[in-house]
Amino acid sequence: MRPPLAHYGTFDVANYGDLLFPLVLERRLGDLGPILHVSPVGGPPPIDGGVTSLPPDAVPETLAGVIVGGGHLIHASPSSLPDYQATPTRALEAYPSLWLGAAERALGAGAPLVWNAPGVPAAFPPRAASVLAWATSFLDYGALRDLRSREILERAGCSVELDVVPDTGLDVAQLFGDRELDHAYQEAFRARGVERSGPTLAFHANARYLRDEIAMVAARIERICARAEAMPILLALGPCHGDDALARELRQRMQCAVLVVDRPRSLCEIAACIARSQAYIGSSLHGALTACAFGRKAAIVAREPGDGGKFSGFLGAFDLTRWLWRDWEAAETNFPELQAADPEPWCRVPREAAPRLDRHWARVRAALAGPPRQTLQRESARARLDAMRRAVLEEFGIYALLLAHQAELTLDQLAQLARQREQTAELKAAYRSAARGLRIRIAELESSPRAGQRPDDDGGPDPSD
After folding, report:
1. What stretch of H or E contains 340?
2. CA 346 from centre of chain
């Protein structure tokens, strides 16, 4: 029996996009033999329809190949996800274990190493950049999902040739059949006791991209739906990021009928709510990507740094950059244009992506079919890894222990800061809500016909007349 492939990614957290990648990989490469999905913590699928994953230390020694990605994986920052913060060490190692750990595992197993179009969020500092350059130096095939990610790797000193291909999650339309989607869409309403009235619009909100108070965002979504004569579906595409709590808060401030999918019953249910809606508007790349895969209109509500990011990387590749909106005020303002637009630009995405993805998967398959091709690079990589380890010990020596302790203290401080920010955000939201209520009350009093009368004035003739 052929040894397994090891597929590294964040498949152990409740995030819709990340959970699609193993399904896509199994569809494309399932005939090559068993596939082990590897994640920082591992465990059962966080959402039904996902996969069970193993922690890195449970990966067997003998492997047929190692695959990294997709997803926004290639960085060395401590994880902010609660799932990965049980200990400071885990928070530090979570993401590096998915690309650096994968490279070490491939080298040790003598197995081919492939990057399956992950993303790179930000530039690497010099010391981390040297480690990244090492981890890519013996890739048998590598691809990234946007040009910015490749530019970051080039600036980090990575000399290996890397392709740029569309996000592999675009295969989502091949994962579920029409009947399965129709049933999941209907069940989403029935299971929650909500009656569907007419067409729907799918929405997703993420707290990182909110500039208005929650009540204002809720009002904007209601007005968008009123214009479209559609019912809103509020989707928690990333419960691991707190999207579920935000969806419930938005619902509490809305007056119209709403379907809230705060605890997705399956990945198919999420896909169905997007695929069977008129359009998707939200802050998830894979929400927009799913809409495109099913020929639905999509707009992304998010802010990016000046040099771009994953949202503009995806939209720009298909000439859809105009549908990246900075906030929910822009979403409400620009929705009429989205509503009136021809759907063809979105329908064109899967057609244009298909041949590029087919070529990408053919290259992945070819790289995994036999022994590693980068023999000389691997011998050099072993020597450079030993040299890097010695250099660190020589430079820091016993102080490395103090640095590790300092890193632990820093992580604790970051956790405390995150809690303080949450508390501050709650106070700000409460203040904004109270201020808005006060403004509404003042406006009501000012517009009242009795606004200019004394408290004891009944509106009759003045007794002194």
Report:
1. helix 328-340
2. 20
Tokens of 200: 């729907």
Give which of 56, 44, 59, 35 is closest to 11, Cα–Cα: 44
| Residue-wise burial string across 107-122, b where 16 or more C-beta atoms lie within 10 A, e elsewhere | bebebbbbbbbbbbbe
Instruction: Fill in the amino acid letter for 271.
Output: A
Closest-CA residue to 130 (of 392, 407, 374) = 392
Q: What would the two tokens of residue 293 be? A: 């895969």
Alpha-carbon distance 424 to 270, whole Å?
Answer: 32
- The answer to whether residues 105 and 59 touch, using CB atoms and an 8 Å cutoff, is yes
Residue 71: left (phi > 0), alpha (psi -120 to 50), or beta?
left
Nearest by Cα to 292 from 304, 280, 302: 280
* E strand or H helix at 301: strand 297-301
Close Cβ partners of 319 (under 8 Å, ≥ 6 residues apart): 345
Cβ within 8 Å of residue 283, ≥6 positions away: 204, 205, 206, 208, 209, 300, 301, 302
Closest C-alpha among 160, 88, 100 to residue 124 = 100
| Series of mean pLDDT values for 10-residue runs along the chain (465 residues) | 95 97 98 97 97 97 96 91 86 92 93 96 88 91 96 92 96 97 98 95 93 90 97 97 95 96 97 98 98 98 89 96 96 98 98 98 94 73 69 60 63 72 74 77 73 44 34
The closest alpha carbon to 299, from 319, 316, 277, 324, belongs to 324
Measured in degrees and rounded to the nearest 5, phi and psi for residue 103 equal -65, -45
The burial of 166, by beta-carbon neighbours within 10 Å (0-12 exposed, 13-18 middle, 19 or more buried), is given as: buried
Q: Closest Cα partner for 79 from 100, 97, 101, 53?
A: 97
3-state SS, residue 295: coil
CA 40 vs CA 18, 98, 131, 405, 422: distances in Å: 13, 7, 19, 21, 25
Please choose, from the candidates 306, 310, 328, the residue with its C-alpha nearest in 3D space to the C-alpha of residue 246: 328
At 460 the pLDDT is 38
> Virtual CA dihedral for 185, 188, 193, 194, nearest 10 degrees?
-60
Tokens, residue 440 = 């509404």
* DSSP state letters, 126-191: HHHHHHHHHHHTT-SEEEESSHHHHHHHHHTT--S--EE---GGGGGGGTS-HHHHHHHHHHHHHT
